[in-house]
Amino acid sequence: MYIELVDETEQVSEEIIEQTEKLLKFAADYIKLAESKEMAVTFVDNSRSQEINLKYREKDAPTDVISLEYKPDEEEFFFDEDMEIPEELMAELDPFIGELFISIDKAVEQAKEYGHSLKREYGWLVVHGFLHINGYDHYTPEEEAEMFGLQEEILTAYGLKR
């Protein structure tokens, strides 16, 4: 999986950036995501997080991670309108799955609040956002149990335990 990593803040350590890339590749393998997939991760401050949250979610407040799932538009590929296009084919034609925006300010704040390391908090945010852009959600108790269970499995298997 190709991952574009950008640190708009110029404050994220090389260790966290490396962990992010390795953890995302690990998570992709864990859920058996095709190797051809691509995504982006941008580290931002609270101010930028708030701008993005307002633009895409209509919430005027900073948040820890914003996940923008990308779904290819069949019309982009000029298929005959009567043609049924298998999901696998669409996935191969357009490998970009989405992007994450992670607030470094919120990560620091939440690591302190939850009493765990900054590495663990960044890992939690990365996997949480990654699962969102791969179709997982937590709107219902059943969805929450599935997503948070898988998230904890991935983090534990990777070695980022509580």
TrEMBL record:
Major enzyme class: hydrolase
The EC number(s) this enzyme carries: 3.1.-.-
Cofactor note: Binds 1 zinc ion.
Needed co-factor(s): Zn(2+)
Keywords, alphabetical: Cytoplasm, Endonuclease, Hydrolase, Metal-binding, Nuclease, Ribosome biogenesis, rRNA processing, Zinc
Annotated compartments: Cytoplasm
Primary location: cytoplasm
SUPFAM superfamilies: Metalloproteases ('zincins'), catalytic domain (SSF55486)
Gene3D superfamilies on file: Metalloproteases ('zincins'), catalytic domain
Binding site for Zn(2+): 128, 132, 138
Source domain of life: Bacteria
Pfam families attached to this UniProt entry: YbeY (PF02130)
Matching NCBIfam families: rRNA maturation RNase YbeY
Protein family membership: Belongs to the endoribonuclease YbeY family.
Function statement: Single strand-specific metallo-endoribonuclease involved in late-stage 70S ribosome quality control and in maturation of the 3' terminus of the 16S rRNA.
Listed name of the protein: Endoribonuclease YbeY
Species annotation: Lactococcus muris
Protein's gene: ybeY
